[in-house]
Amino acid sequence: MGKKVILSGNEAVARGAWEAGVKIATAYPGTPSTEILENAAKYEEIDAQWSPNEKVAFEVALGAAIAGARSMVSVKHVGLNVAADPFFSSSYTGVNAGFVVISCDDPGMHSSQNEQDNRRYAKFAKVPVIEPSDSQEAHDFIKRAFEISEKFDTPVLFRMTTRLSHTKTVVEIGERIEVPLKDYKKIPEKYIILPAHARKRHVVVEERIKVLRAYASKCELNRMEINDTSLGIVASGISYQYAKEVFPNASFLKLGLSWPFPEELFKEFYEKVDKVIVIEENEPFLEEEIKFLGYADVEGKKYIPLCGELNPEIVRKGVLGKELPHPEEVKSVKRPPALCPGCPHTGIFYNLWRLKLNVTGDIGCYTLGALPPYNAMDTTICMGASIPNAFGFEKARGKDFAKKTVAVIGDSTFLHTGIPGLMDIVYNKGISTVIIMDNRITAMTGHQDHPGTGKTAKGEPTVEIDMAEVVKALGVKKVYKVDPHKLRETRNVIREAVASEEPAVIISERPCALLPEERKQHAKRPKRKVDPEKCKGEKCLGCIKLGCPAISMKEGKAYISPLLCVGCDLCIQVCPFGAIS
Amino acid sequence: METRNIIISGVGGQGIITASEILSEVALFNGFDVKKSEVHGMSQRGGSVVSHVRFGEKVYSPLIEKGTCDVILAFEKAEALRWVHYLKPGEGIVIVNDLEIIPNMVSLGLDTYPENIEDTLKRDASKVFIMDGIEIAKNAGDPRTANTALLGALSNYLPFSEESWIEVIKRRVKPETIEANLKAFRMGRERGRD
Questions:
Q1: Quick check: ipTM above 0.85?
Q2: How far A241 CA lies from chain B's nearest CA (Å)?
Q3: Which of A358, B33, B87, B128 is deepest in the core (most CB within 10 A)?
Q4: Does B24 touch chain A (CB under 8 A)?
C-alpha cells in the first residue's frame, strides 16, 4: 500500500500528473485552479511555467504534446474562454503524447464572474470529459486521462470544481513512471488544419466520439453501485458526494468519464432500479443526454436547482422536500473581503473616489474598489476588458466624457490581455487614460510570478518585461509613473492625464503589501496611533474612508489595531486634524 | 463512529486555514477518514472565512449539513454567530475567542455589529465557552499562537490523544515557534477543561 497523505484536489492532480510522467505543465493563475501549476512546479521532472494568458499556455502545452511529451494545461473555467480557439482546433488535430486540459469550474462563483459549466465546452469541442469526485480520484483519474488521450488520440477535458480543488481529503499516493518521448513525425494532414485537411479531420472526430461512447460503458471510471433498488441516482464529480451523504442506501450510477455519455451502461442501470433521478450541480448536462436517449421519466433539475453551488441540504430539500432540524439562522455583521492594510490599491481608489471619475475596472484584488467605502468602479467584465471598455465609453459619449473616465488594470492582467486594448486606443486615435496598478505580482490568486516580475514559476531569474517600455512601444507618448501611497502627487497626475488630448498611461508602482520583502519593511516601521484628543470621531471619519481594515471606530474615536497596522502613512496623510502619528 | 463535524470560523488573516489543517492531520494520524473544506481566493485580510472539517470511518460530503455540527470553534465573536444554524439542535458546542473585530462597514455607519452574541449562542448551543486566546498566547510567549490556544480548548471535545496533537503541531508550525505553540496548546487545553 502507498503512503496516505491529505491533499487538496489541486495538489492531488499535480501529484497524479507527476506520477503519470508528465513533462510539461502550463497555466495562467485563476481561482480555483492556481495550485495545480504551483504544485507541479515543485517537481524537478516537470517543466512547469506560467504563461501570460491561457491561450498561450494552452498552445505551449499542445505543441509539447504534438512534439511527443505528456503535457497539461490548467485553467479556471473562464480561462478556457481565452483558450477556446486552440481548444477547438486541438480536437481536430488530436495529440501525439497525452494532452490533458484541466478546467476548474466555480459553481457558486466564489471568485468568478460567471457559473459556466465547461462540460458543455467539451461536448461542443467534441472531446471526452473526466470528472473526479475527491482528491483520491483526482490523483488516480488524471493518470487515466493521459492514457485515454493517447489511446483515442484526443485532448481530454479534466473537470474539477472549486469544492474539489480546495477540499483536502486522504490520498494514497504512488511513484512516478517515466514515459519516454513519443516519436515526432511531420503529419501535415493532421497538424495543419487547412480547410482541406480539417474536412477529413472532422470525420475522424465524429468516428472518435462513437468509439469513445462505446468505451465509456466499459470503462472502470464509470460504475454501478447497486444497493436499495427503489431509487437510482446518476451523479458525477462532487455532486456524487452530496448525493451519497443524503442517500447512503440508494443505488448509484457514478460517472467518472461522463461524456461521451455511456449509453449502454445507463440502460443496464435503468433496468435494475425502480426510479432514476440525476443529481448534478449547475447545468442539466447528464440529464439532457439521458432525455435525448428517450428516457422521459428521468428527472434532475425538477429537484435540483440550476443556479449556485450544491451542498447536502440543497440535495435533501430538493429531493425529499425538507431539511434536517437546525437552529434558526441569525443575522451577523457583513464582512466582505477588503484591501489589506498597506495595499497599494488603497491610495488609487481613495483618489478615484475623491476625483469622482468613471472607472472601467478589471479582474484582480482591485475589483474590490467597487465596494464601499470607495464605490469607485463602473464596469468589470472579464480579463483585459477595462481598457477597451473605457475606449467604448469615449466612442459613445465623446472626449469630454473620456476626460472624466479612467481604466484600471493590474500588471498581470495588462500583460494577459490588456496590451491589444491599449494598441486599439492608439491606433484608432482615442484619448482614454489607463492606470496600470503595478504591484509586481499576480496578487489575488496568491502571488504568482508573471513576465513583469523577473522570475519564472520555478523561481529562476529571467528577463523582466519593462511595463513603461511596452506602453511606449505601443505608441503612447504620455507615460507617467507614480507611487500610489503619495496621495496628493498621485491625484495631481491623474488630473493631468485625464485632461490630456491624447492617450495617457499612469503606471502606479508599489509592491503588494503581502510580499515577503514588504512584510520585512512593515516590521521595521512604527505602528500608527490615534490621539483621541485631536480625533473628531464620527463627525469626520476621514481615515475610515480609506477602507483600511486596521482602522475602526471604537468608543466614538478612530482606533488603529496594532495587530493589523503595517505602519504605512496613508491615514496620516488623510487626517485633517493631525491626530494620527 | 458517526462522522464528527467541526466548523472553524474567523476573519481572513487569523490563521483559520492553518488551524483546520492541523485538526485534519490529527484526525488522519488517528486513523480516520477526513475531509477539510474551505474556499480561498478573494479572502484577503478582513473577509469572513470558514472551514469545515469532517472525520469518521468514511466521509462523503466535504460540507457539513445544517443541523449536524458538533463544535463551532470561532476566532471572533460575530463569526461564531454567523454559523449557529449549523449546530446539532441541543447538542452543539461553541468555543469562542473573546474578540470583536469591527468591519469597516460598521465604522462607516452602514452596518451594525451584533449585540448580545453570548445570549444567542447560549440559546442554540448546549455549551458556550468563551476564552481570551490572545491573552493565553501572550502568556505562552507569542501573540500569534492564539489559534493554537483555541485548538487546545477544542481538543477536550475530540477523541484524540494529547500526544497526537503535539506531534502534528510540531510538524506544522515554524521550528522557532514550536515551544510557544505547544505551551499555548497546553494552556488552552487546560483552560477549556471543565
A1: yes
A2: 5
A3: B87
A4: yes
Q: Would the CA dihedral through A145, A148, A150, A156 be positive or negative? A: negative
Nearest chain A Cα distance for residue B108, angstroms: 7
Interchain CB contact of B143 with A (< 8 Å): yes
The C-alpha cell 447536502 sits at A312
How far from B5 is each of A330, B72, B86, B87, CA to CA, in Å?
20, 9, 10, 9
User: What does the block give as the cell for A182?
Assistant: 513519443
CB contact under 8 A, A311 and B61: yes
Is residue B72 a contact partner of residue B7, using CB atoms and an 8 Å limit? yes
Q: Whole-angstrom distance between the N-terminal and C-terminal Cα of chain A? A: 61
Q: Is B61 on the interface with A (CB under 8 A)?
A: yes
For B9-52, the pLDDT digits (tens) are: 999 888 899 999 999 999 999 999 999 998 765 555 678 999 99
Bridge partners for B33 per DSSP: B56
| CATH number of the domain encompassing residue B143 | 3.40.920.10
A373: nearest CB among B81, B104, B111: B104
Domain that holds residue B22: 4-191
- Burial class (CB within 10 angstroms; exposed 0-12, middle 13-18, buried 19+) of B13: buried
Q: Is the pTM of this model over 0.90?
A: yes
Q: Residue type at B57?
A: E
Whether the Cβ atoms of residue A118 and residue A105 lie closer than 8 Å to each other: yes
Question: In angstroms, rounded to a whole number, what is the distance separating the alpha carbons of residues B4 and A206?
Answer: 49
Report how many domains make up chain B. Answer: 1
CB-based contact A167 B28, cutoff 8 Å: no
Split chain A (581 residues) into runs of 10 and give each run's mean pLDDT.
92 98 98 97 98 98 98 98 98 98 96 96 98 98 98 98 97 97 98 98 98 98 98 98 98 98 98 98 98 98 98 98 97 91 97 98 95 95 98 98 98 98 98 98 95 97 98 98 98 98 98 95 95 96 94 94 93 98 96
